[in-house]
Amino acid sequence: MKKLQVGVIGCGSIAQHRHLPEYAANKQIEIAAVCDIVKTRADEIAALYGAVSYESVEELLQNKEIDAVSVCTPNYLHAPISIAALKAGKHVLCEKPMATSREDAEQMIEAARESGKKLMIAHNQRFVPSHAKAREILASGEVGKVYSFRTAFGHPGPEAWSVDGKDSWFFEKEKAFIGAMGDLGVHKTDLIRYVLGEEIVEVGSFVETSAKEFATVDDNAVCILKSESGIIGTLAASWAYTAKEDNSTIIYAEKAILRLEDDPVNSLVVQYQTGEIVKYELGGIQSNDEGGQSNSQVIDRFVDSIVSDKESPVSGLEGMNSLQVVLAALESNETKKMISLR
User: Fold this and answer.
1) Kind plus residue range of the DSSP H or E element containing 74
2) Nearest-angstrom CA–CA distance, 220 and 211
3) How far apart are CA 271 and CA 277, in angstroms?
4) Please, what is the Cα angle at 97 between 113 and 56, to 5 degrees?
5) Which of 34, 118, 183, 282 maximizes the CB count within 10 A of its CB?
6) pLDDT at 286
7) What is the pLDDT of residues 210-266, one digit of tens each?
8) How far apart are the first and last CA of the chain?
9) Phi then psi dihedrals of residue 53, to 5 deg
């Protein structure tokens, strides 16, 4: 079968560390084109993967040979580029957050529907083995009713990882729109929705810029979330966890406590009310630390959805519902009120 021809738009760290290596490892893919506003960067990446280099997104999208694209640009460009790519007849894998407003997210979903092409949002936490296993345990009913949760995603900040360091777009409100909540918090809103199998219906938050004096976006946020069945919990997103990354989630249920990515060896630990403790060594979560990159499954799942003509594993609607919680957190912080998503 002819290999899918893929273009990667934006050649920063997420493209270099995740999208490009994972496409290169997929036998059904040929990396046909790369694009970046920094032409020398695009040229270097193109040479590495035997692809054509573009400086213009429009020119890349005019290439009829390209079947699908990854959108790895600053946040404010996610929606316009994704919509243009879908209208050009390309399948789209878009980095998170999918957009900077609900309206833009809705337009992306509509463009996918009209074009008949796949739109997937790169929420990789759904594919972490411990998260999938926890969802399975909760859905089975074996631990009874879920009462509460706490989830966190924090690290020292993107300046150590971004190709532009402190000068990165991550810290500029005009390009990023949102800081730690968009970079990390949206991963956790998606995870909580996925693991609980419920939508979040109410949000309260404190969103601050306290650690990065050079940033015009948030770097610390703590949110209170309530699900449709009344499960309450907290979500923290931070670029100020200075010593070590924290990507843990703890779920408090009627008959057990589930600890996800909270133990360095056992990625899921279930502590039953009876005193029994079950430990699952399922492999580590994706991390930006040295040696922390393997296969996030995002690329493979995206490719499989195209080749097998299956529904996108993280659809535009799923991406929008996760984005909504983040947008509500911003509104809550500004208005000092709880925000209802019903």
Assistant:
1) none
2) 8
3) 5
4) 75
5) 34
6) 62
7) 999 999 999 999 999 999 999 999 999 999 999 999 999 999 999 999 999 999 899
8) 46
9) -100, 135
* 121, β-bridge pairs: 94
The answer, yes or no, to whether residue 45 has pLDDT greater than 60, is yes
**Burial class of residue 218, CB neighbours in 10 A (0-12, 13-18, 19+):** buried
pTM for this model (two decimals):
0.96
Which residues have CB under 8 Å from 320's CB, separation 6+? 98, 99, 102, 105, 106, 109
Residue 318 pLDDT > 70: yes
DSSP code of residue 185: I
Say how far apart CA 35 and CA 11 lie, in whole Å. 7
Nearest one of 88, 100, 98, 104 to 120, comparing CA atoms:
98
How far apart (Å, rounded) are the C-alpha atoms in residues 244 and 275? 30
Taking each helix axis from N to C terminus, what angle separates 186-196 and 129-140, rounded to the nearest 10 degrees? 40
Distance CA 220, CA 169 (A): 17
The span from the CA of 122 to the CA of 105, in Å, is: 14
Other beta carbons within 10 angstroms of residue 55's beta carbon come to 13
Residue 288 has a pLDDT of: 54
**Whole-number Å distance between alpha carbons of 78 and 80:** 6
186 sits in which H/E element: helix 186-196
Mean pLDDT of 163-186: 96
Provide mean pLDDT across the span 273-277. 98
Q: Which amino acid is at 276?
A: E
Q: Retrieve residue 58's tokens.
A: 């429009």
Using CA atoms, how far apart are residues 191 and 91, in angstroms rounded to an integer? 24
Structure-block tokens of residue 279: 């430990």
Summarised one tens digit per residue, pLDDT across range 84-138 is 999 999 999 999 999 999 999 999 999 999 999 999 999 999 999 999 999 999 9
Contacts 24+ apart (CB under 8 A), 50-56: 54/7
